[in-house]
Amino acid sequence: MLQKTYKWVINLSTKPHAVWALAFIAFVESSIFPIPPDVILIPMVIAAPSRWFTLAAICTITSVFGGMAGYAIGYFAFDTLGRPLLELYSYGNKFTNFQNLYNEYGEWIVFIGGTTMIPYKLITIASGFTQLDMTTFALTSLLARGIRFFFIALILYWFGQKIQAFIEKRTTLVFSIFVILILGGFLAIKYII
After folding, report:
1. What is the DSSP letter of 145?
2. What pLDDT score was predicted for residue 106?
């Protein structure tokens, strides 16, 4: 089943609307959606390695704009949207502890959250709520998300054939590692807060 899903995603990633899907997922993941854009970026770069730079740029830019939407949720609508989102991910009751940490190390938290599998939406909402300087937030987000998505795309560009063969041979293993990384990001935030 995973093999069929993988081939379906690879096939979809070659369609003209795939770029819009990548942009949309990168945007909403930064503010409300739990699945990272890597799920679409990786097969798109594997399917069209010569477009690695463009795809990484689209992913980065739309992710930063989505991060600004998350920032706006935290800043303007924390009680109506931000808190319910944090509670959806079971982080609502620990947010006060995180807020104190955030006031001291905000830009580093944005950078680490932007480059790792830590749920970025939590970082963006917290940035708005704690009123982290918007310029600092935007520039740190651009740097962090750029490092993450350009690194992934460049590695796939360089080693795409080998990585594609590895993924196709070991789809279950790759899927399991990806799920573990996503869950690990959520758990990391849970224990940091």
Report:
1. H
2. 85
**Whether the Cβ atoms of residue 123 and residue 110 lie closer than 8 Å to each other:** yes
The pTM score is 0.79
Helix ranges, 30-94 (H): 38-47, 52-76, 83-88
**Measured on CA atoms in the order 182, 39, 129, 112, is the torsion positive or negative?**
positive
- Mean pLDDT computed over 7-35: 82
How many Å apart are CA 78 and CA 18, to the nearest integer? 32
- The tokens of 106 are what? 């905000």
Tell me which DSSP letter residue 17 carries.
T
The residue type of 31 is S
* Sequence-separated (6 or more) residues with CB below 8 Å from residue 44: 13, 18, 19, 22, 51, 55
Burial code of 85-106, b = ≥16 C-beta within 10 A, e = fewer?
A: bbeeeebeeebeebeeebeeeb
Secondary structure class of 109 (helix, strand, coil): helix
Domain assignments of the chain as residue spans, ordered by start: 6-29+36-192
Residue among 153, 113, 160 at smallest CA distance from 137: 113
Under 8 Å between Cβ of 67 and 31: yes
pLDDT in tens, 94-140: 666 677 777 778 888 899 888 887 788 888 988 998 899 999 999 99
